[in-house]
Amino acid sequence: MRRMKFQKRVITRGDEIYLLLKTPQKMFLFHSSHSRFQLYVFPFLIFLTIFVLLSMIYWALRRSLLPLKKLEKDIRRYGRGEKVETDTDIVAGEDEVSRIAQAFYSSVSQVQRLSHARELFIKNLLHELNTPVTKGKLLAELSEEPRTKRMLGEIFDRLSQLLRELVKIEAISSAASVSEKKESVSLKSVVNEACERLFCKDIPADNLPDVMLYAEKEAIVIVVKNLLDNAIKYGKNPNISVIDKRLVISSEGEALPYPLEHYTEPFRQEYGQSKKDGFGLGLYIVSEILARCGIKLQYIYEKGRNLFIISDLPLDNVRRLNAD
Predict the structure, then answer these.
(1) Which of 295, 125, 113, 315 lies closest to 213, judged by CA?
(2) I want to staple 296 with a disulfide (CB 3.0 to 4.6 A). Which of 123, 247, 281, 311 is the partner?
(3) Interval 189-236: pLDDT, tens
């Protein structure tokens, strides 16, 4: 068998490359118009340039958006009622983010000044009103006429009670939320403390389940106390129970002629017939506290009883899991 012989030769003319193959019978010529630089190096340089440009754009955008994260944190803090300080690094620029930050911090600063001025005014007002009320109560005790002593005592006691209610309203309205002081508390202890503040021991609460709540104790005690106070003042046979994770405070009496929203406005005294012992702030305070806790207050009239229902009790799920 004869061995086939062939020759090869590479011919270059500028960027043109030719490969010549010779055999005894035929001749083959292969042509390429691209150099190695054009085939490999040039595309790689294009890819590298695009990659560097995209990386620079990404880091530039990331750096420009960093103030937005700080601004978002301050907005969330302001929403929780925390004090917010102006970030000079954000407001120093002239871009859109800096202008938004300037508007936000300017509004926050103005609101904080107004809030501070309002708190100072309320504190001074309550102090100036509480001083003459206290002096009046002392002078009423010095009166020798029993009828005058009793009338003055009732007047100043009512004024003192009104001042305490105004203090509660101020604390509720100035607080952004009641979530900062949450703790695990027993429902029975809340009800017992509410009853102690009302000086009532005959409300049946022993059958309450051993439920643990996760909430601010003082706020929940005020809610239960005000609802129980209304049940005692304007109804008969008050009762408190838990039905399907809902706290129900009820009493016998006539149905409310208006929707519940009518009585949750401040200084509403149409609830019940006796108006001398209250200022129409009880249900308003209850509604405000529950709204800040994200809890609903409902009213139902059923079988001759007025039922005030606190839906979605803030149960302590950790304690419940441990108990299970």
Answers:
(1) 315
(2) 311
(3) 888 888 887 877 677 665 678 788 888 888 888 889 889 988 888 888
Alpha-helical runs (H) found in 4-145: 36, 42-79, 88-91, 96-142
Task: List, in order, residues 6 or more apart from 154 with CB less than 8 Å away.
Answer: none
What superfamily would CATH give domain 183-323? Histidine kinase-like ATPase, C-terminal domain (3.30.565.10)
The pair of structure tokens assigned to 230 is 């209304």
CB within 8 A of 306, min separation 6: which ones? 231, 235, 250, 251, 252, 253, 255, 256, 299
pTM (whole model) above 0.90 = no
Report the alpha-carbon distance of residue 312 to residue 13 in Å, rounded: 87
| Cβ 283 vs Cβ 268: under 8 Å | yes
Q: 42-79 and 96-142 helices cross at what angle (nearest 10)? A: 10
Tell me the per-residue pLDDT of 101-147, one tens digit each, with 9 for 90 and over.
888 888 888 888 887 787 788 778 777 777 888 888 787 887 778 88
3-state secondary structure of 182: coil
Q: Is residue 208 exposed (0-12), middle (13-18) or buried (19+ Cβ within 10 Å)?
A: middle
